[in-house]
Specification:
Blueprint (H helix, E strand, L loop, with lengths): L7 E4 L5 E2 L5 H4 L3 E9 L13 E5 L8 E7 L2 E6 L4 E3 L10 E8 L4 E6 L2 E7 L12 E2 L13 E11 L4 H12 L1 H4 L19
Antiparallel strand pairs: 1-12, 2-11, 3-8, 3-12, 4-5, 5-6, 6-7, 8-9, 9-10
């Protein structure tokens, strides 16, 4: 079970999801954000970042690819082209649901890694559009050095968006999905007697 209805479990061997559309135009150009809920306790050392297991990405042997949800030694991050992989400072492999949001500005190469609604790390990866690889398969980096690049864990509420999501939006997403009783408070229920006015506008 996921946080919101059902999640998808990836077994680290042969589970992937092939999307109907290529998301490279969304995540590979301009400003982009990618977020998901993850629950895993598997820690893998993938070596070079382009050989790491990744939730979304594909090494094409050039500078025009991107990797979203790179998982390495218990940390999570993002890598663009031949630039540095920007990884979280803290690990996420405690087998609890964790909310991860990654943002990238293609013009500056600036990448942010949010964990559980707050900024966890940031840095600069490669600049420019990264449209060489086709982002259609969730759950695997085909060039991963371990387990064929397959990830292990449960994923829920995966979102890819054009634009850099602001920090308050990312926080609100985390609170809405994980801490409803804190994020949205309400008083006791009223009786069944209708009150107030109803206005219909045609």
């Amino acid at each position: 079970n996921g946080i919101i209805t059902k999640a998808r479990y990836f077994n680290g061997t042969n589970n992937t999801i092939t999307l109907a559309n290529n998301l490279t135009p969304v995540l590979g150009t301009g400003e982009a954000s990618f977020s998901f809920l993850i629950r895993t306790d598997t820690t893998i050392d993938g070596g070079q970042s382009y050989n790491c297991n990744a939730f979304f990405g594909d090494e094409i042997g050039g500078n025009s690819d991107s990797f979203w949800g790179v998982l390495d030694v218990g940390k999570v991050g993002m890598k663009a082209g031949d630039g540095a992989a920007i990884m979280s400072n803290s690990t996420i492999t405690n087998n609890n649901w964790r909310f991860v949001a990654l943002t990238r500005d293609a013009n500056s190469g600036f990448v942010q890694v949010f964990v559980d609604g707050t900024l966890n790390s940031y840095g600069w990866s490669d600049t420019g559009s990264k449209t060489g690889n086709i982002l259609r398969v969730l759950g695997r980096n085909p060039d991963g050095a371990t387990n064929g690049g397959h990830v292990v864990g449960s994923f829920d509420e995966v979102r890819a968006m054009a634009g850099v999501s602001p920090s308050n939006w990312i926080w609100a997403c985390w609170m809405n999905q994980m801490s409803n009783s804190v994020f949205c408070t309400y008083g006791s229920g009223m009786d069944a007697v209708p009150r107030g006015s109803v206005i219909a506008v045609k």
